[in-house]
Amino acid sequence: MNTTHYQKVNAPERRAGPELMAKTAIKATRSVTRKSRANGAAAKRTRGEKVADKEEAIVAVAYEMIAAKGFARTTIAEIARKANVAEGTVYLYFENKEALASAVLSAFYKRLTAQAEAGVKKRDGVREKLIFLARHHLEGIIRESSILELITVTDRNSENYEGSALYQMNKDYVAVFDGVMREGVLTGVIAQEKASWITRDVFFGGLEYAMRTIMIRRRKKDVDAAVMGIVDMLIPPGAVQSGRTDLTALAGRLEAVASKLEGAAIPK
Amino acid sequence: MNTTHYQKVNAPERRAGPELMAKTAIKATRSVTRKSRANGAAAKRTRGEKVADKEEAIVAVAYEMIAAKGFARTTIAEIARKANVAEGTVYLYFENKEALASAVLSAFYKRLTAQAEAGVKKRDGVREKLIFLARHHLEGIIRESSILELITVTDRNSENYEGSALYQMNKDYVAVFDGVMREGVLTGVIAQEKASWITRDVFFGGLEYAMRTIMIRRRKKDVDAAVMGIVDMLIPPGAVQSGRTDLTALAGRLEAVASKLEGAAIPK
DNA sequence: TTCTGGTAATGAGTAGTATTCATTATTACT
DNA sequence: AGTAATAATGAATACTACTCATTACCAGAA
User: I need a surface site. Which of A53, A106, A218, B158 has the fewest CB within 10 A?
Assistant: First the structure.
């Protein structure tokens, strides 16, 4: 275990790049020499910036490939090739394949979070916001279902999970949901009967399982059904705002149902 | 691609054993020769039975190891060694590692199903049954959380998933839940507002996510909280079984009935 | 501009594991 | 006991994550 100039750190998570990163940018330098980049590649920037670019490129390629073929079928060799780096280089930026998976998952959450925040800001009313969030999440995980697999791949190290970058990313993401729920409770639309983490797990867990069902059955309309079904569980659609039962309203409701029944067959 | 006497079938799933299986049992034969079994090993049974035994042994060993170390860290070589067979033998019984994972997952569901059915039979009342099911499932997946990983490992082949043995096992398992829910709807305790698959996904998905949260935070009491929280989402806690009638409870009951009638009688 | 210490990048080599298949052992039955 | 069919074996193959000695590159100094 001799300590060469860039040894592997024991601490998990957070490789920042080769020894550098966050070193102040200095000057513009000449353009890339060998292996001219795929894109037009204008004059290259400082060393630190190049390092950051390279890390991003690797993550981006890995993201694409994992989304397309899944984690197991994605090889480091191919990632390296498509990112225009050597295999060894990947390991300068990421401890191992799992750490790379972690970074990809973070990127996924980051993207989802940005869209979620923007979308929530646009809507009015707790119910509308929740419907948007549910649909946004469901469509996102359907589109990139392979990425979700990374949660399992990564979870092995639940030791130091709290504090990891991935944990933070996930936290930021669910915070959007939590915020909406809190708003609901404050405005009295939602009755807070249980710990918030349970509601959260039901929401995301339910959506993930719904995704699997939908992907097996391949029905477009199922997305709507799942979204509405799950939202209705969090906000009772007929929600009596006051929390007190309104007898008059109930009577009216029963009247309406009775009328409808008169014209319909008695259910089995 | 020459077809030797036992070639690999293209069809996925369902390897039954080497060419045999379901051939009629014939006679008792002498005991095991080399590699005397770990257990006392009484006189061995017919060829077909031995084959079945061997398959079970492999699955059992794989089950143990995957539950203990996870799928990736479990090697075929070690499974073979602990099951007292050669590496190649494993491939006589299972197409590949993934198919073995599938068999393990099936065994897991089978075990859960038996316990679930027995437990449900013991309880009275939809609510009690659901609480039992939720706790049973949650404790089961906490105890053997690594097994759940196999769902993802296996899911790749969603093409021919329906019809697979695994699909059937899973179906049998969730059928227990479905049965209880149906009972709830029929007795009016539960309002059937949404498609049953949504309720099901919320139930199991919510429990799985709750499991993750619980395993990270390591609080015993969280299990109870999650169980009650999720069950309450399916059966509003105020739901009256019988007996006294304060107005609020009655209203809740009527709401449920009204919803049921709407869902059942009114054509979409 | 040239030099130089240190950093980044490389890719052939190592180690480990799923999978195959020619060969050998075991049956069940005559 | 003989034998055709079947089951079992494990060394060889094919891949892939990961390492590390070597090389290329860069930023500043002279």
Answer: A218
* B192 and B145 share one domain: yes
Return the residue matching tokens 């390591």.
B218
Chain B residues close to A253, C-beta within 8 Å: 255, 258
How far apart CA B120 and CA A26 sit, in angstroms, is 70
Torsion of the alpha carbons at B117, B64, A145 and A57, rounded to the nearest 10: 160
Distance (Å) from the alpha carbon of A37 to chain B's nearest alpha carbon: 34
Report chain A (268 residues): mean pLDDT per 10 consecutive residues: 32 54 29 29 57 90 97 97 97 96 97 98 96 98 95 76 88 97 91 90 98 90 96 76 51 64 54
| B208 → closest Cβ in A205, A226, A232 | A205
Q: Which of B95, B113, B139 is the last residue of a domain?
A: B95
CA A68 → CA A34, A73, A140, A258, B212, distances in Å? 29, 9, 14, 53, 26
| B235 DSSP 8-state letter | S
Q: Which residues of chain A make contact with B267, given a CB cutoff of 8 A?
A: 264
CATH code, domain carrying B242: 1.10.357.10
Highest mean pLDDT among A179-183, B7-11, B35-39, B186-190: A179-183
* B65 and B148 part of one domain: no
| Residues B119 and B246 occupy one common structural domain | yes
The pLDDT of residue B60 is 98
Please give the share of chain B, as a percent, with pLDDT higher than 90.
56
What's the structural domain count of chain A?
1
User: What is the residue range of B65's domain?
Assistant: 1-23+41-95
The answer to whether residue A92 sits within a structural domain is: no
Judge: B208–A209 Cβ closer than 8 Å, yes or no. yes
* Tokens linked to B194: 């949404």
For residues B252 and B122, the model is more confident at B122
**Nearest Cα to B199, choosing from A189, A140, A221, A232?**
A232
Instruction: Kindly state whether residues B132 and B216 are assigned to the same domain.
Output: yes
Best A245, A253, A259, A262 residue to mutate vs chain B (most B CBs within 10 Å): A245
pLDDT score, position B37: 29
Amino acid at B260: K
Do the domain assignments include residue A228?
yes
Whole-Å CA distances, B215 to B143, B146, B223, B228: 10, 12, 10, 18
Residue A7 within a domain: no
Same domain, B83 and B148: no
